[in-house]
Amino acid sequence: MNNFFFIIIGYLLIFISILLFWLRLQRVKLTIQDYGYWKKVEKVLRITKERVFKIIKISEYEFSQLSKNFFERILRRIKIEALKIETWANKKLENLKIKDKEEINQ
Predict the structure, then answer these.
(1) Would you say 53 and 63 are in contact if contact means Cβ atoms under 8 Å apart?
(2) pLDDT for res 11
(3) What is the reported pLDDT for 87?
């Protein structure tokens, strides 16, 4: 139960932080010099990414497949935790029904 809670809260916090970051960016007005600077940074990041993929010897498609599989595993774990919670709740409801019937019979 705790693990499921932490996973959901983690994704929620990531979503909120991305949303706040996007809203903050909307308020910033960039100049031409800023655009030039960020183009240089983008170029450096692209070259670095290409070098890292050459070192690892993995294509971007394979990387996307690995990340997709990783997210599928996480979602599968979330589904398993949800099913565990559902079965626990069903057992509790059955126990309550049994107790109610015993009280009525007495």
Answers:
(1) yes
(2) 86
(3) 92
